[in-house]
Amino acid sequence: MELIAKRPNGTKDMIPAEAHKWHTVEHIASETAECFGFKEIRFPMFEETGLFKRSVGDTTDVVQKEMYTVTAKGDDSFTLRPEGTAGTVRAVLQNGLLNDALPLKAYYIISCFRHEKAQKGRLREFHQFGIEMFGSKSYLADADVIALAQTVLERLGIKNTELNINSIGCPQCRQKYQDALREYFSAYKDKLCDTCLSRMEKNPMRILDCKSEICSDIAKDAPIILDYLCEECNEHFENLKENLTERGIKFTVNPKIVRGLDYYTKTVFEFVSNSIGAQGTICGGGRYDGLVEQLGGQPTPALGFAMGIERLLLTMEAENCEFFAPKTCDVYIAAMGKAAEKKTVQLVNLLRDEGYHAEYDVMGRGLKAQMKYADKIGSKFTIVLGDNELEKGTAKLKNMAKGEETEITLGDGFIDRFSDMLIGDMFDGSLGDNLF
Ligand code: HAM
Fold first, then answer.
1. Which pTM does this prediction carry?
2. Residue 260 phi, psi dihedral angles, 5° rounding
3. Domain containing residue 371: CATH number
């Protein structure tokens, strides 16, 4: 068979057999965010290109090299979202959400698009679970956001991670730091890549996270921002470290973390998994106190993080974490003939209305093949409708794990009788742990 189209490089299919893994991550992440007071926000998959240029920053790799941009009719330029913070801030402002009680807390589960060199853990379409909090400038908000990320990882069963934190200061301390960087990098002008050379004047901090081997080698001995923090930024960082320690959250101060997006101020952090190799950053985030104002809102401090869902899944698989059990069929109705067919549809509808996962034959198989199929899909029970039983108004009910067969009366009260039998069988453990 020759396919006429293949999956684009750097994308993945989510096939039904893997769905329970995604559901585990999405359910645990969103439930945990709700526990911390966050509510879901949804926003478009594409935005005006200018939004990302102004927020993510036009000297970043994301904007300079990785955006999927289309020019629609009428010359408007739109870009598939490379991340979720810019869209969240735009939506928060456009809907006037900062006029409500603060802090405003929102979480999202989204697809993102970056034209990167595809490899294990680095995709061109990937998914993020992210949270954003608006309105608090306190270090307590930073600590709470980090605690939320840590709780999500713990609840997913992920153990082998490290939390790295840093402060990259505010525009005031950044000024002196940028000057020091310019001075340092000017000695390497003939070695830096062209992109970094062009960053030198406008934003030398971006050279620190260039992916080129030569540039990152040069950047190893560059001055560090922690030596340039102003008093306020320094106090904020000291308070955060103290608070994290009080909460028992282990961290390493890593002055090399500058993050690849321009909007950050003060605290930045990353959780790195040691179980999945080079693309081990499973969560990245920080404060962005200037972004709301930059995008046209009132000055409002804000912060957040995002986790890469594919990287979380890779880590969970590598660490043998537990996923929710895949949902299996509760009851399969096997039947033959026209009269049985009618009764089957009636019973299946009754069962489905009660919330049971009920299936029947739509393939025209014989009874034996239907039973084989029921076994293959792991159905917990089968109901067999034969002519004799139909006449009597009964059916055979089989617990597939135990191989035991009983008779069940159809007609009024069928659902109650079925539920009673099922509850009876639940206590012997033969039905697995995903019945309801
Ligand atoms: P980011 O560090 O660019 O931050 O991305 C967050 C996470 O998304 C990364 O730690 C990684 O797990 C995942 N990720 C990024 N790129 C890829 C890729 N190409 N393939 C697979 N996974 C990837 C942000 O996006 C910020 N918006 C986070 C944030 C929210 N900061 C404040 N609020």
1. 0.93
2. -95, 10
3. 3.40.50.800
